[in-house]
Amino acid sequence: MRLPIVGADPANINEPEAIRMIRYAIDHGVNYVDSGYLYHGGNSEVLIGKALKDGYRERTKIATKMPTWMVKSQQDMDKYLNEQLMRLQTESVEFYLLHGIDKYLWTKLLKLNVLDWMEKKKLEGKIKHIGFSFHDQCTVFKEIIEGYDKWDFCQIQYNYMDTAFQAGTEGLKYAASKGLGVVIMEPIAGGRLAIPPPKDIQALWDSSEVKRTPAEWALKWVWNHPEVSVVLSGMSTMEQVVENVESASHAVPNDLTKQELELINQVRQKYEQLGFVACTGCRYCMPCDQGVNIPEIIALYNEYYLKNRASEIQSKYRKHIAPENEAKRCIRCGKCEDQCPQKIPIRNVLSDAVLIFEQTPRRTAIGQLRHLAGLALRKMKLKR
């Protein structure tokens, strides 16, 4: 879902570069490629089908996902799976997931007898392993695992900032104890743990005798858990592919020292003090009916605070966010929040973004008070 694109349209994948990146990864040991029905506007699976020609399919295990929120019947399930196999140019996929399951979707899919359907497709050879990706509370996660005794694997969000979020560490250990393979998504929190950190956080990384990039620290922390089967990392450049492949080649469980784990804990505490918005850039909130560019605005919002409220980010906002995509166009309908896997209070973030980026320098007295109050309440509003 993070392949290189041409321009600003996520559906317009840079096909030659994306194929080059995927094949480089496979040539250097990667054998698991993860996709989804709607990724890159539906073009991700198509691109993967092209990339896995010329003998690469035989060296690769494909994982993709049922668009659960679009399914209303088993006929829909058949329709989407058959379309996905056609896009991927394959007769079967090794791993098929119920996408983004929460309590509501799980209840809905059970009524549609989705598990019977999955078993049937497994018998037909179209699916090799049955699993689900998850976005809800850990109690729901356990209910789903207990609700079916033939799960092969699950996929959860996990990184050093999200140990108690959604399934978290408790869910990771629980799934592994039940014999499920555990696939980790967002190990770098949608890339936010890889961007150049504030000086005080970088100073912590620099204090380590072992030198790693912030991305490598984040990945290393996830790989350190013996319960983890696969770590997904969305890569948008060849440089990221090369770095991640090199890092993975040295990754083994229980490899971090006590001192390194304490260092990561200190970095976590620093980030928590910043009140960082947990957006992973998944774009499930899009499109906004009012045209608001939600992911880009939140990214700039985070960058603003990471760089100690730097005025350069305000200039960057005005350069990259067109008037028709500004935060002030938000009408607080809440549709984006309903679709957000992270349960981010997006409307509050956009209100803050208006105060930070879109007001004139000469704020009214009331506007200034609102801005200061917003800053004082940031952590309370955004804290998970």
What does this structure look like?
It is a single chain. Helix 9 (214-223) packs across helix 10 and helix 12 (294-306) crosses helix 15 (346-358). Strand 5, helix 7 (168-177) and strand 6 form a beta-alpha-beta unit. It is built from 16 helices and 7 strands. It has 2 domains: 15-274, TIM Barrel; 294-382, no CATH class. Strands 1-2-3-4-5-6-7 form a 7-stranded parallel β-sheet. By secondary structure, it is α/β, with parallel strands linked by helices. The protein is 47% helix and 10% strand.
Number of strands: 7
Spatial arrangement of strands, main beta sheet: 1-2-3-4-5-6-7
Stretches where pLDDT falls below 50 for ≥5 residues?
none
Helical proportion?
Answer: 40-55%
Envelope shape: globular
When the domains are counted, the total is: 2
Distance between the termini: 25 Å
CATH architecture name of the largest domain = Alpha-Beta Barrel
Please give the largest β-sheet. Answer: 7 strands, parallel
* Strand residue content: 5-15%
Radius of gyration: 21 Å
Mean pLDDT over the full residue set: 90
CATH class of the largest domain: Alpha Beta
Number of helical segments?
16
The CATH topology of the largest domain is what? TIM Barrel
| CATH homology superfamily of the largest domain | NADP-dependent oxidoreductase domain
The topology string of helices and strands comes to: HEHEHEHHEHEHEHHEHHHHHHH
Content-based structural category: alpha/beta
